[in-house]
Design a protein that fits this description.
globular, about 55% helix, alpha+beta, 4-stranded antiparallel sheet, 29 helices, about 750 residues, 5-stranded mixed sheet, 11 strands, single chain
Length: about 750
C-alpha cells in the first residue's frame, strides 16, 4: 500500500478556489432542488437522528487542513454528531460520506459534483477518491490547475537532521528534502563566496563527490553557473538598493584604485552606513574599470557610480593622500554641490586616510635605520631561498634551543608594516643566524663583512618595540565593521605622545627617528585647521569622551587658546549639523495650502498656523538644549568593550536630533582599508589562471561575494607553516600512516 504522503495530494491554492466553487454549488443546489444531494443536516436533525429519514442519509464531513485547523464555513467536529473522528485529507472538500438509516457510515463516499460514489473506508484510503477527481469527474471545476499541481507535487519524504547555520550557532533539528533549485542556488553561492572557478563544477573530483553524496542532483554546466551568478548579482543589487533607500540617511564612501594583472585599472567604491537598527554596514557598490589613475577620471567614475545607485546624500569620502585623489574630490564636490548633497557646505567632505598618513610618518622615521634593515632583509632572503637552506636553518634553531615556530617573513620595502613583521620574526632567530655562519660556508662567503652585526640586531629590537605601537594603532583604526571615526583623534594623541617620548629618548637613533617623524606628523596633523572637523565631532558623540576629553587632551599638547578655538569650532559645527538635520526632518511635513473663499476656513487655517509656529519654536528650543544636555551629563565609564552604537540605539529617544547626527558621523571610515581589501579579492579572482575574465564578470563576482558573505573574517587560501606542521604531527600519530608513509620519506631524504 502506498504511503499517505504519496496517496494524498494537497494544493492550498487550488483547494481554496475549489472550496469556493463548492460553496456556490451548494447554494445553487438548495435553490433549485434539481440535484439529488440534500444540504448538510442541522445540529437539531443530527441530535434527533430520526429513523423516518430517507433510506440513505448524506452527511457532509468536516474538512480539516494539514495543520489540523478547520476551514471557515465548514462545521466543526463537535457540531457533527455523526463524525466519529476527524478527517484530515483535503479530499473531503469534494466528497461526503454516506450513512444508512441507522446513522452508521456505509464506508462509501459521494462526489459533490457528479454524485458518483466510491468505496472510502480505511483499507483503500483516499487514493481512489483523488483519482476520480483527477481522471474521471467531468464536472470538477479548475480541473486543469488541479492536474498540473498534482504533477508538480513533492513525492520526497523529508529527513530529520541536525543543522547549524554557522560555527557559533547550536545545531537545530530540521526537516530536509532534496530540492534541485535550492541545491543549484547553494552551488552558485559557494562558487562566489569561496572564489572558485566556473570550471569547478566540471571537475572530476566534484562530480564523484556529488555522485556519492547527492546522486539525484543534476550538475549544471559552467555556462549555466556563470549565468546564475549574473542573475544572483542582479537580485542582490536590488536588495541592497532597497536597503540604501529605506534604512539609510546618508552614506560615507571609501574609494581606491588598482591595476590588475590584465593591466586594467579598476576603481572600488565602498559605502558605509548605519541602518535603522543601529547596525554598521559595509557594502562594495562598484568594482569598475576606470580609464586611468588621473583625478579627473576617478572623479567622473565616482560620480557615475553614485548616479547609478541614486546616492544624493553623502557625508564624507575617505581617500588616501595622493594628489590625484585631491583632484578627484574637488571635481566631485563641484558636481555634488549642485545636488545639495553635502552637510556643512561640503567643508567636511574630504577625509584623508589615517593609515596612509601614518605610513608616511613612519616611513620618514625608518630612513635612519635603512642600513641595518637591509642587512637583516638580505639574510632572511638567503634562508628562504631554497628548501636546503631552510632545513639547515631549522637545525641551527634546534642547536640554539630556540622554541619559536614562527616562520621568517620577507617584507615589502615600500610597506613599513611588513618591515615590522619581518624584524619581529627575525630578531627571535639571531642565535640561529650566528650558528648558520659556522655550518654554511656559502652563507659567510656571500655576505662577508656585510653580515648583521650586534649593533644591527640591537637596532632591530629597539625598532620592533618602536614600530609595534604604530602597528597596533593601524590595525585598530583599519576596521570596517565597527565605528572608527570616534577613534581617530584618541589614536592621534597616542601617536603624538609616543613621538614625544622617542624624541626625549637617551638612544640617539630613536631620538632622531622621533624628530623626523614629528616633522611629518605636524605636516598633516599639526593644527586643527588641517584636520577634518568630523573627527572631533565623532569624539564628542562618544559618551565616554565628550567635549571635556577633547579640550583636555588638546590642551596637554598645544596651547590653551588652541584648545578653546577647537571647542568653539566643534560646538558651532555640531549645532549647524543639528539645524540641518532638524530642517530635513521638517521637509515634506507641510502640505500645499489650497485657497479657500470661505472666511471661516481662512481663520481656522490661520489659527492652526499660529499653533504650529509656536510648537516649532518650542521644539527648536528643546533641540538647542539637546546638545547642552548631552554634553553636560557625566561621561560613561570607559571600557574597551563599550558598545557605542547600542548606547545610541537605547538613548535615541532622549536625543532625537543628535542621534540622527551620530548615526551618520559614526559611519565615517578613518581609512580606505575597506576598499583596498577588495583588491586582495580582485587579485585572487583575476589571477594568471583566470586573467581572461571580463571586467563585468569580475565586478559581479567581487561585489556579490561582499554582499553574500556573513562572516567578516578574510578568506585564508594559504596554509601557514605552523598549521601545516601541527597537522602533520597530528596525522603521523596514526601507526598505519607512520608505517606506510614515513619509511618512504626517510628514503627520499
Amino acid at each position: 500500500m502506498a504511503s499517505n504522503s504519496n496517496r494524498e495530494f494537497s494544493s492550498n491554492s487550488v483547494s481554496m478556489r475549489i472550496s469556493g466553487n463548492l460553496n456556490s454549488k451548494r447554494k445553487a443546489i438548495s435553490s433549485d432542488g434539481r440535484d439529488q444531494m440534500p444540504p448538510p443536516p442541522s445540529r437539531e436533525n443530527l441530535n434527533s437522528s430520526s429513523p423516518s429519514s430517507a433510506n440513505t442519509q448524506i452527511v457532509a464531513s468536516n474538512f480539516v487542513s494539514n495543520e489540523g485547523t478547520p476551514n471557515e464555513g465548514t462545521p466543526s467536529p463537535t457540531s457533527l454528531a455523526c463524525a466519529s473522528k476527524k478527517v484530515r485529507s483535503e479530499v473531503w472538500v469534494h466528497f461526503v460520506k454516506l450513512k444508512n438509516d441507522q446513522g452508521n457510515e456505509t464506508g462509501r463516499a459521494k462526489c459533490v459534483y457528479c454524485s458518483k460514489d466510491y468505496l472510502a473506508n480505511s483499507e483503500p484510503g483516499t487514493s481512489g477518491l483523488w483519482k476520480h477527481l483527477r481522471d474521471t469527474c467531468k464536472k470538477f471545476p479548475n480541473k486543469k490547475e488541479f492536474v498540473e499541481a498534482y504533477k508538480s507535487r513533492d513525492k520526497m519524504q523529508k529527513i530529520l537532521n541536525f543543522q547549524k547555520a554557522s560555527e557559533s550557532e547550536k545545531s537545530k533539528l530540521s526537516c530536509w528534502q532534496f530540492d534541485q533549485q535550492a541545491c543549484r542556488d547553494a552551488l552558485v553561492k559557494m562558487i562566489i563566496k569561496d572564489e572558485l572557478p566556473f570550471r569547478f563544477v566540471e571537475g572530476e573530483g566534484f562530480r564523484e563527490f556529488i555522485q556519492v553524496s547527492l546522486p539525484m542532483f543534476q550538475i549544471p554546466s559552467r555556462y549555466t553557473i556563470a549565468r546564475d551568478c549574473y542573475y544572483l548579482f542582479v537580485q542582490e543589487k536590488k536588495k541592497l538598493h532597497a536597503l540604501l533607500t529605506s534604512q539609510c540617511q546618508r552614506v560615507s564612501l571609501t574609494t581606491d584604485t588598482w591595476t590588475s594583472i590584465q593591466n586594467v585599472s579598476y576603481l572600488c567604491l565602498t559605502a558605509h552606513f548605519i541602518d535603522s537598527g543601529w547596525n554598521l554596514h559595509k557594502r562594495i557598490l562598484n568594482f569598475c574599470v576606470v580609464k586611468s589613475h588621473k583625478g579627473i577620471n576617478i572623479g567622473n567614475a565616482i560620480d557615475f557610480c553614485m548616479d547609478e545607485w541614486g546616492l544624493n546624500k553623502v557625508m564624507c569620502i575617505t581617500v588616501d593622500n595622493a594628489s590625484s585623489n585631491d583632484t578627484a574630490v574637488q571635481q566631485l564636490k563641484k558636481k555634488l554641490t549642485k545636488k545639495n548633497a553635502f552637510v556643512l557646505g561640503g567643508e567636511a567632505f574630504h577625509m584623508r586616510c589615517f593609515a596612509h598618513i601614518l605610513q608616511l610618518v613612519v616611513k620618514d622615521g625608518l630612513e635612519s635605520a635603512q642600513y641595518s634593515i637591509r642587512r637583516i632583509r638580505d639574510v632572511v632572503k638567503y634562508v628562504r631561498g631554497s628548501p636546503q637552506r631552510l632545513e639547515m636553518f631549522k637545525k641551527c634553531c634546534e642547536s640554539a634551543n630556540i622554541k619559536s615556530k614562527a616562520s621568517l617573513q620577507l617584507d615589502c620595502p615600500t610597506r613599513w608594516n611588513s618591515t615590522y613583521l619581518m624584524l619581529e620574526s627575525a630578531v627571535v632567530y639571531q642565535k640561529a643566524f650566528d650558528k648558520l655562519e659556522d655550518v654554511d660556508s656559502k652563507f659567510l662567503g656571500e655576505f662577508g663583512n656585510d653580515m648583521p652585526s650586534e649593533v644591527d640586531w640591537t637596532k632591530a629590537r629597539n625598532l620592533t618595540r618602536f614600530l609595534k605601537r604604530f602597528y597596533d594603532v593601524t590595525c585598530k583604526i583599519s576596521g570596517s565593521l565597527y565605528s572608527t571615526s570616534n577613534l581617530y583623534f584618541p589614536e592621534i594623541i597616542r601617536v603624538l605622545k609616543d613621538l614625544q617620548a622617542f624624541q626625549s629618548s637617551n638612544d640617539l637613533n630613536l631620538a632622531e627617528m622621533g624628530r623626523m617623524m614629528r616633522e611629518k606628523f605636524d605636516k598633516y596633523w599639526g593644527s586643527i585647521q588641517k584636520m577634518n572637523v568630523m573627527l572631533f565631532i565623532a569624539v564628542v558623540l562618544d559618551p565616554r569622551y565628550k567635549m571635556d576629553y577633547l579640550a583636555a587632551k588638546y590642551k596637554s599638547f598645544y596651547s590653551e587658546n588652541d584648545a578653546n578655538d577647537l571647542v568653539t569650532r566643534v560646538t558651532n559645527s555640531l549645532r549647524a549639523l543639528m539645524d540641518e538635520y532638524k530642517g530635513n526632518e521638517q521637509v515634506g511635513m507641510g502640505g500645499v495650502i489650497n485657497p479657500s473663499n470661505d472666511v471661516e476656513d481662512m481663520v481656522e487655517d490661520e489659527e492652526l498656523d499660529d499653533y504650529f509656529i509656536e510648537r516649532e519654536k518650542e521644539q527648536s528650543l528643546v533641540s538647542k538644549g539637546e546638545l547642552d544636555r548631552y554634553v553636560g551629563e557625566l561621561p560613561e565609564k570607559y571600557t574597551h568593550d563599550f558598545d557605542l552604537l547600542n548606547w545610541w540605539k537605547v538613548n535615541a529617544v532622549r536625543y532625537p536630533i543628535l542621534s540622527k547626527v551620530a548615526k551618520d558621523v559614526l559611519a565615517i571610515q578613518s581609512s580606505t582599508v575597506a576598499s583596498e581589501s577588495a583588491f586582495s579579492t580582485g587579485g585572487r579572482t583575476l589571477d594568471r589562471f583566470r586573467s581572461s575574465l571580463t571586467p563585468t564578470t569580475a565586478e559581479v563576482l567581487i561585489c556579490c561575494q561582499d554582499w553574500l558573505r556573513s562572516s567578516s573574517k578574510p578568506i585564508q587560501l594559504e596554509e601557514t607553516i605552523e598549521d601545516l606542521e601541527s597537522l602533520e604531527s597530528e596525522i603521523t600519530q596514526d601507526p598505519e600512516i607512520v608505517e606506510s608513509v614515513m619509511p618512504r620519506t626517510r628514503v627520499d631524504c
